[in-house]
Every structure is written in structure tokens, then in C-alpha cells.
């Protein structure tokens, strides 16, 4: 039985550039997941090497809603799938997209059977984005991202309301929450509030031994 989902977003921190992404991915993959599903989201330029190295699902930090063709600079699902990439993360607070583009992209991802983690930054966005029925919907207040106070402690009522809205409109969507999640207490509190997993970045990537932090979180 899956206890929950943990998504590790590498972002573009200096600690994970180039070959360092593969090293960190291997170290994370060595951690016993103890019933949790792990998903890694490396940089675009390291996706292939990370996916070749580990068995943990690897998601792209962005995807475009295009088939193969004359799309210079496009991030094409067909190519991502050939590289072993299993899904995508969309609409993070650091890479917001217009709703019209998100609609096209999520619809195209569904057509290509390419799971989506769709990020939202407010309850207003949650109500709008859940209509797209992504596989995962993540609630991440931008003011808490990278901070020392977790969303599960700072905004517990918002997590509860997010879960209620999502389950009313599309019960199949898994609810994740992120921003400031740093330790086992933050993770457990999120699960107690009804979330089915969390998004992490700073708390692991900016440490010397992210695998140790993850081990303590899952202990």
C-alpha cells in the first residue's frame, strides 16, 4: 500500500547542475522508500542521464503541447517518453503559465498518457485548475517556498479546503502540498490533513547529504 507520494524538485540550484544531478539522484534512489512513491524532477538538461541511472520515476519540469514537428526549442512529450521520462510538472510558482496554455498542455498530456503534477498557489487557483483533472494537484503558497515554516504548519486549513475541493470535483486526483516541508513532522502533518504527498526541494537539495534528510523524513 502506498503511504504517500514525495516529489523532489531539483529546480536549478548550483548543487545539482551537470553530473551532480546524477550523483544526487543515485543517492536518493538508495534510500528505502518505506511505502512512499518517489518522483524526481531534475533540470531539462539532466533528464536523460538521471532517467538512465535510476528506477525511480523521473518527471520533466516543463512540457509543451506539441507533436513532433517544426517547434524550435519545444519540449516534446514523444521525445521525453523515448528518454524514459514518465510525466511532467507544470505551473510551478517559478514558471507560471496562462490557463489557456495549461488547458492545451494537460489535454495533450492526457492524450499521450503522460501524467501531470499541476501546481497551484492559492485556493482560487485550486478551484480553477482542478477542472483540468490532472493526476496530481499540488498546493504551494509562494510566500512559503524555500522558507523555514512549512505549509502544513502555516496553512493547515488551506490544505484541508484544497482536499475538499479536489475530492468533490475529481476524486481521482492526488492532492500534494509543498513549500517549507523540511522534516518528518511536516510530512506527517500534511498527510494527517488529507494530502496524499508533498513536494520538496530546498530542504534536500541545499543540504550536503540529501539522502540522510530523506531517510529521517521517512523514518
Strand order of the largest sheet: 2-1-8-7-6-5-4-3
Please, how many domains? 1
Largest sheet: 8 strands, parallel
Number of helices: 10
**Nearest-angstrom radius of gyration?**
16 Å
Query: How widely separated are the two ends?
Result: 17 Å
Q: Give the low-confidence spans.
A: none
What is the CATH topology assignment? TIM Barrel
Which CATH architecture?
Alpha-Beta Barrel
- Helix percent reads 25-40%
Approximately how much beta-strand content do the residues carry?
15-25%
Question: Main traits of this protein?
Answer:
about 220 residues, alpha/beta, TIM Barrel, 10 helices, about 40% helix, globular
Outline the structure in words.
The chain has 219 residues and is an alpha/beta fold. The protein contains ten helices and eight strands. Strands 2-1-8-7-6-5-4-3 form an eight-stranded parallel beta sheet. The protein is globular and about 50 Å long.
Q: What's a concise summary of this model?
A:
The chain contains ten helices and eight strands. The chain is of the alpha/beta class and 219 residues long.
Which SSEs are present, and which pair or pack?
Blueprint: E1 4-9, H1 19-29, E2 36-41, H2 47-53, E3 59-60, H3 77-82, E4 87-90, H4 99-111, E5 116-120, H5 123-129, E6 136-139, H6 151-154, H7 156-169, E7 174-178, H8 184-192, E8 197-200, H9 202-205, H10 210-218
Parallel strand pairs: 1-2, 1-8, 3-4, 4-5, 5-6, 6-7, 7-8
Amino acid at each position: 500500500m502506498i503511504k504517500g507520494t514525495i516529489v523532489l524538485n531539483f529546480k536549478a540550484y548550483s548543487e545539482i547542475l551537470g553530473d551532480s544531478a546524477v550523483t544526487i539522484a543515485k543517492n536518493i534512489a538508495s534510500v528505502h522508500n518505506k511505502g512512499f512513491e518517489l518522483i524526481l524532477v531534475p533540470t531539462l538538461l539532466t533528464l536523460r542521464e538521471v532517467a538512465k541511472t535510476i528506477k525511480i520515476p523521473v518527471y520533466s519540469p516543463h512540457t509543451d503541447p506539441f507533436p513532433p514537428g517544426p517547434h524550435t526549442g519545444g519540449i516534446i512529450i514523444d521525445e521525453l517518453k523515448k528518454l524514459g521520462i514518465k510525466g511532467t510538472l507544470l505551473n510551478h510558482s517559478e514558471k507560471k503559465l496562462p490557463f489557456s496554455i495549461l488547458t492545451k498542455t494537460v489535454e495533450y498530456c492526457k492524450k499521450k498518457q503522460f501524467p501531470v503534477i499541476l501546481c497551484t498557489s492559492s485556493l482560487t487557483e485550486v478551484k480553477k485548475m482542478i477542472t483540468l483533472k490532472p493526476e496530481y494537484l499540488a498546493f504551494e503558497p509562494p510566500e512559503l517556498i524555500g522558507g523555514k515554516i512549512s505549509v502544513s504548519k502555516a496553512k493547515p486549513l488551506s490544505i484541508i479546503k484544497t482536499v475538499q475541493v479536489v475530492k468533490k470535483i475529481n476524486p481521482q486526483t492526488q492532492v500534494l502540498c509543498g513549500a517549507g516541508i523540511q522534516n518528518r513532522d511536516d510530512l506527517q502533518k500534511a498527510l494527517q490533513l488529507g494530502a496524499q504527498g508533498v513536494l520538496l526541494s530546498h530542504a534536500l537539495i541545499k543540504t550536503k547529504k540529501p539522502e540522510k534528510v530523506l531517510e529521517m523524513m521517512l523514518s
